[in-house]
Write a structure and sequence with these properties.
199 residues; Rossmann fold; seven-stranded mixed β-sheet; 7 strands; 21% strand
């Protein structure tokens, strides 16, 4: 399975996925990093590991459809099977959704449907919840609304600060995301071989 990872920032989840591939816990190839913030630290991580990078300034395109068409072209050139969003701060538009329907996944630092959108950890912290967590879901046209694939709960301790809670959630994300991607790949490989056997 060839993966493209989309990131906008430092790319810590991207790094966790790269590490999982290099350690053999994730049987996939990361063929491309797509970044909408040229110069983001995620790009340096990709270069360190010899992963191709496509970065772009969204403002240089006439709109979302235009830059997504360019992204689809890049993905097809690399023969990408699956898109993994790892801190990509844009809603995916119809152009990408239609081209890779059912093959785009995202991680979100809350127990969805609670606290969708930006600053989910801050939202949970300000709401005073006793439990939050991380969710991996399929991407649809909504904001963090796609089918939930995996979740892990994290208790908010009385001693926690926003920083310590953020660290705890990131630690779970960095383990849960590669493991979940691997189980998606295993499931799809199995389904693919069953379909072949039926024909």
């Amino acid at each position: 399975m060839k993966l493209a990872v989309f990131a906008s920032g430092s790319g810590s989840n991207f790094q966790a996925i790269v590490d999982a591939v290099e350690e053999g816990r994730l049987q996939a190839e990361i063929s491309l990093l797509v970044c909408d913030k040229p110069g983001a630290y995620a790009e340096k991580r990709a270069q360190t590991h010899g992963i191709s990078v496509f970065s772009f300034h969204p403002k240089e395109y006439s709109g979302k459809a235009a830059f997504e068409e360019e992204i689809v072209k890049q993905l097809r050139q690399q023969e990408i099977d699956m898109i993994i969003l790892a801190g990509y701060m844009r809603l995916i538009g119809p152009t990408l959704l239609h081209s890779y329907e059912g093959r785009i996944f995202n991680i979100h630092p809350s127990l969805l449907p609670a606290f969708p959108g930006k600053d989910a950890i801050g939202q949970a912290w300000r709401a005073g919840v006793k439990v939050t967590g991380a969710t991996i879901h399929m991407v649809d046209e909504g904001m963090d609304t796609g089918t939930i694939i995996a979740q892990e709960a994290i208790p908010v301790k009385a001693t926690d600060s926003l920083q310590s809670l953020t660290k705890a959630i990131q630690a779970v994300e960095h383990r849960l995301y590669p493991d979940t991607i691997q189980s998606i790949i295993e499931k799809r490989t199995l389904e693919g071989s069953q379909i072949k056997n039926e024909h």
